[in-house]
Amino acid sequence: MPFSWLQLSVRAHPSTFDAVSNFLMERGSPGVVIKKSEVQAYFASSGEHGSIKKDVRSFLRGISEIHPEAETPRLQWRILKDRNWNSSWHRFFRPQKIGKAFWVTPPWATPPTLHRRQVITIEPGMAFGTGTHATTRGCLEYIERVARLVRGTKFNALDVGTGSGILAIALVKLGASGVWAVDLDPVALQVARENLRCNHVQEKIHLADGKLSQIRKSFSVVVANLTAETILDFAGALKTKVAPKGFLILSGILNPKSGQVVNQFAAQFKVISRKREKEWVSLLLRRR
Predict the structure, then answer these.
(1) Which CATH number is correct for 4-89, 3.30.70.1170, 3.10.310.30, 3.30.830.10, 3.40.50.2300?
(2) DSSP labels for 172-211?
(3) CATH number of 126-287
(4) What digits encode the pLDDT tens for the residues 57-90?
(5) Between the CA of residue 210 and those of 54, 82, 170, 185, what are the distances in Å?
(6) Are 27 and 128 in contact (CB under 8 A)?
(7) Residue 61 CB coordination number (10 Å)
């Protein structure tokens, strides 16, 4: 474990605290402290803070669009020396049920025995995707649904912006014959590689740092848990990666942007389901 921590203080309107706290936990913070007008979060310091800071700024811009009446959130970062948190932070992560198919658990905890649930072990760290956030839950629930729809057939999948690797792991656990998992963040790839090994699925997942445009094949299932802006930027490439009658799962979309995302894909895809949890929307589409 690292010997220092990165502290983030976000001064924001109390109406945004729940969304901000949830996002920071999902982004790898083992816990947050909520004060009168501030949310404090802590991240294990590895020297690779650029991607975290970029993600936080992008998220807060989206929150400002939803709550224009609130003042623009202000950020402050600082490095803290070790305060013996290396073990105490574990208490913030416990096994949790998601949908009807999964237990998601950190490696130091044992999920309750429950038949017919797949166990996904994820090390909370520097990469997005621990299962606590609405966007990840939405994707996992849609992966479960798609797996039921294609049961008995061979299918492959693509996970765009894999982060911790949780969605790629879920796809294999529910029957994908092979998964391509791509991310441009070297820290995310490092974390994902360890999570794949921990879940014994590394032989079925091709982990790569290449761009989406460099992938020349199509897939039965494509999952992209990104942001609305990134999904719109990548829309052309995403469309070409979905095989005929294949499924596209999109998440990380703040509700005001969901209509724009749907319209971008409407010509080639039918919306099968739309799931909203607080500010966040997840979409399940099928290629016409």
Answers:
(1) 3.30.70.1170
(2) HHTT-SEEEEE-S-HHHHHHHHHHHHHTT-GGGEEEE---
(3) 3.40.50.150
(4) 888 888 887 777 767 788 999 887 655 555 555 6
(5) 20, 35, 21, 10
(6) yes
(7) 14
